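Dear colleague,

Thank you for sharing your sequence with our group. We've completed the structure prediction you requested, and as agreed, I am returning the results in plain text so they can be pasted directly into your records. Please verify that the sequence below matches your submission; if there's any discrepancy, let me know and we will rerun it promptly.
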Amino acid sequence: MFIDSHCHIDFPDLMNDLPQLLENMRQHKVTHALAVSVDVSDWARIKTIIETHPNIYGSVGTHPDYEDVREPTLDELINMLAHPKVIATGETGLDYYRLQGDLEWQRKRFRTHIQAALATDKPLIIHTRQAQQDTIEILKQEQAARVGGVMHCFTEDVSMARLSLEQNFYISFSGIVSFKNASVVHETAAFVPLDRILIETDAPYLAPVPHRGKTNQPAWVSHVAERIAQIKGISVEEVAAASTENFKRCFKLSALT
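Please find the predicted structure tokens below.
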């Protein structure tokens, strides 16, 4: 059994084909998925999906790349995070790769999300790119380790993985781990203990080999598990079992719906 810990099935190119995507999940033994928010203004779409489909969980947050959107307030985040099927805060974080200039607004938004996570005990989903130092510093300053969470679609090095683990975060690998030239990600996957690994698709992006270049979907998260199993020299069943238990532990679920 596999769980896709991060996908965007509320995006139109996936939501319009949602019944088939859910059937594909069933056929590939992907039992659950986490539909991750990138803009609180789209909350209605996430809410509809998680209330209609028992095996889909949701998150609430606004992505750090979204500059020209309505800024979520702390109270707004807290109110939406109260929904029983919402299990995470984000995605949030810092991205100094796609955006340049004065990014204080991005750091302020990140702090607001951490404060909401702490207020509701809903773990964080962190997006970080070329912002290692500020990401870790803000997590420490805001005491984010108290709630923990996941570093999603991890592409950083072993050093960043170690710092993230120390802050009570899990490391999630996407289809990038299946790419032949992703040597840094392979090295990090070998380093991260099995009991701290999650698997994801980040669908509709980053389809894993052998589907690279196509529109990604949650059913294909099994290929991520297969590559991690190869890197660690263990069975895919071990990766599936561990990542499922890690998902429950990370997102504070006593049982899966």
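Summary note from our side: Residues 119 and 222 are 34 Å apart (CA to CA).

Kind regards,
the structure core
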